[in-house]
Specification:
Rossmann fold, single chain, 364 residues, 3-stranded parallel beta sheet, 2 domains, 7% strand, two-stranded parallel sheet, elongated, mainly alpha, 54% helix
Length: 364
């Protein structure tokens, strides 16, 4: 049985936060330790980030190494994973060009993820308009995935429509050109549904860099403490004796995502598990300060090793850059190989095709 090829990545538009961790980074660590893959690629998607940051390229430049520091600080291992920069792989936009002929514009604009992102960024405003590059993102993503023949793509739930479009492109290409060059990818999403979309500390439905409601993986101890202290709970739980609501309470949502059974023995021994803690809160007699302190202890235990690894790599930036350079060179070779196979399948490999050259010589 052949091993898996995994591809995933992030846009370098800011530091990664704990929502990224539970939504995708934790899954990458688990995949890394399973060791049932032939190749594991993580892409810094700077080209894709330009589609809605084309006027602020410095923002992307500032976050390339920040992203690498986040990856290395959580324990992603450059001995097991190939890290690369998307814009350095010229085969990717060329593959995108060929795939564009397999997808209609109306199909692109019906993609649920594209539709929601267009509305979020105000591109549906007549004056602003939708950048072609932004609408074209599902096709670009198909190029990213297929260039490395990835059959496993870890994604959040909001990215599932994008992967479905990649599957459509793979099927169309292989059918039209009577080939099996492109590999059909499968998605994997977090099993814990809470982890699919961790809410912001302000009670907003999504943790987002733009809303400034995140706990970053690089936040220091005092910053994390202050952010947890200010988190939204149940607005009707005014006195400790008041019954409290667990559903929609952001502190309990974070506990659902991060709490382990052994945390109670260490930090809150009067409770057996999270269910017991929730039951007490629902009945009344349990204050928000206590559950926030419990969450803070859990988050500190989680974040402190990350801070230490980050400090190690911050003192070795040339080493970080070398990791990225080495990975990018390897990724370039792999993507170029796939590109050549794609061109062979289409029949546009004229100058490298001896049969074509022979036919033309005989013809004239």
């Amino acid at each position: 049985m052949s091993k898996n090829i995994i591809l995933t990545g992030d846009r370098p538009t800011g530091k990664l936060h704990i929502g990224h961790y539970v939504g995708s980074l934790k899954q990458r660590l688990l995949l890394q330790e399973k060791n049932n893959f032939a190749e594991f690629y993580i892409m810094i998607a700077d080209t894709q980030a330009l589609t809605d940051n084309y006027g602020t390229p410095q923002k992307i430049r500032d976050n390339i190494i920040e992203l690498m520091l986040d990856y290395l600080s959580i324990g992603l291992d450059p001995k097991k994973i190939t890290f690369f920069v998307q814009s350095e792989i010229s085969a990717l936009p060329e593959l995108t060009t060929y795939y564009m002929n397999l997808v209609t514009l109306s199909r692109l604009l019906r993609n649920p993820t594209v539709k929601s992102e267009i509305q979020l960024r105000g591109f549906d405003n007549e004056k602003k308009g939708i950048p072609v590059g932004f609408a074209n993102y599902p096709i670009s993503q198909a190029a990213d995935i297929t260039a490395f023949k990835a059959n496993i793509v870890p994604v959040g739930e909001d990215q599932l429509p994008m992967l479905e479009q990649t599957r459509e492109i793979v099927k169309s290409f292989n059918t039209i050109y009577n080939t099996n060059v492109l590999v059909m990818p499968e998605s994997i999403i977090p099993e814990n549904k809470v982890c699919c979309r961790l809410p912001g500390t302000d009670g907003n439905a999504k943790m987002s860099k733009s809303l400034n409601n995140c706990i970053y993986l690089s936040d220091d101890k005092e910053t994390v403490k202050n952010k947890i202290r200010s988190m939204y709970t149940d607005p009707n739980h005014i006195k400790i004796t008041d019954p409290g609501k667990v559903e929609g309470n952001k502190v309990f949502t974070y506990l659902d995502a991060f709490c382990k059974e052994e945390d109670f023995a260490k930090y809150l021994p009067e409770y057996k598990d999270l269910d017991e803690l929730k039951e007490h809160y629902r009945k009344g007699g349990l204050g928000d300060i206590k559950i926030k302190q419990f969450l803070n202890n859990i988050m500190e235990e989680f974040l402190e090793p990350i801070r230490e690894r980050r400090k190690y790599y911050e003192e070795r930036i040339p080493e970080v850059i070398d990791i990225l350079k080495t990975g990018t060179l390897k990724a370039k070779e792999v993507a170029n190989s796939t590109l050549n196979e794609v061109k062979d399948a289409i029949g546009i490999n004229y100058l490298n095709d001896n049969n074509f050259i022979k036919e033309q010589i005989e013809k004239y």
